[in-house]
From TrEMBL:
Its EC number is 5.3.1.1. It is found in: Cytoplasm. Substrate binds at N11, W12, K13, G176, S215, G236, G237. Signal peptide: none annotated. It catalyses: D-glyceraldehyde 3-phosphate = dihydroxyacetone phosphate. Transmembrane segments: none annotated. PANTHER family: TRIOSEPHOSPHATE ISOMERASE (PTHR21139). It comes from the Bacteria. This is Triosephosphate isomerase.
Length: 265
């Protein structure tokens, strides 16, 4: 939790399989969560092919739309790719560097940095993912790994783009495994990311929101957003259930409402 507005982003991955089911999920989130989306920033990231349909449903709401990936070239002979410039016409957000893109599709830190740069240039807000593998976690190298990934991502990034950037810390061993990171571990690793941002951008580093992701659900989301350096969560599996997602939204809103109450005392 910080002074920033909290953000809850839903990564639907390769789900749902039909347009009808995607529309139903989007309507479910909107129906149950729209009131809370005035207190918590909410971003839904469906597969490319459902972006248009979901955009129509979210139109006139506070809930924003994101893609799960993009390509760095604007146009050209790149069969099967979708550019950041194309996405900018449909959504406000894009995820880059998700660990499934890195592990299944061979994306390197350098490729992710190019995607990030292209997305920022297209005026998209970006959720850039970093996170250590299980062996780095086991050998106590989590902070070093994410610091190195963050350095590569930041590349030539310009100060005026910082507001568009969100960094999601997602330990790879926690994604989809049901084994979420201990909040203390998330705290110390995210502190390393913030430190890198500070070294590079000084005070402006606080403009970048940091999320935790990895087996987050309604029952544990508060434990992460209560951390002083955590501004929200990136949710995979649990975001496919509108009721569960709305419970997470309510839990995040409650943490922030409690903090505002304490500050006012
Ligand atoms: C993710 O896909 O970014 C993610 C965190 O997945 P899950 O919540 O299912 O672990």
């Amino acid at each position: 939790m910080s002074h920033q507005r909290p953000l809850l982003a839903a990564n639907w991955k390769l789900n749902p399989v039909t347009a009808e089911a995607a529309a139903e999920l989007a309507r479910g989130v909107l129906g149950r969560g729209e009131r809370l989306s005035t207190e918590v920033d909410v971003v839904l990231c469906p597969p490319y092919c459902w972006l248009l349909g979901v955009a129509e449903i979210l139109h006139d709401s506070h809930v924003e739309l994101g893609a799960q990936n993009c390509y760095w070239e604007r146009s050209g002979a790149y069969t099967g790719e979708v550019s950041a410039a194309m996405l900018a016409g449909w959504c406000q957000w894009v995820i880059v560097g998700h660990s499934e893109r890195r592990s299944h599709f061979g994306e390197t830190d350098e490729m992710v940095a190019r995607k990030l740069a292209a997305a920022l240039e297209s005026d998209l807000n970006v959720i850039a993912c970093v996170g250590e593998q299980a062996d780095d976690f086991d050998s106590g190298r989590s902070a070093d790994t994410v610091a190195r990934q963050t350095d590569v991502l930041l590349g030539e990034m310009e100060l005026h783009r910082l507001r568009q950037l969100v960094i999601a810390y997602e330990p790879v061993w926690a994604i989809g495994s049901g084994r979420s990171a201990e909040p203390e571990h998330a705290y110390s690793t995210m502190r390393a990311i913030r430190q890198r941002l500070r070294e590079r951008f000084d005070q402006a580093a606080t403009e970048v929101r940091l999320l935790y992701g990895g087996s987050v659900k309604a029952a544990n989301v508060a434990a992460y957003v209560e951390l002083p350096n955590c501004d929200g969560c990136l949710i995979g599996g649990a975001s496919l259930d509108a009721l569960e997602f709305s419970r997470m939204l309510a839990a995040v809103a409650e943490v922030y409402a409690g903090a505002a109450g304490r500050a006012a005392e």
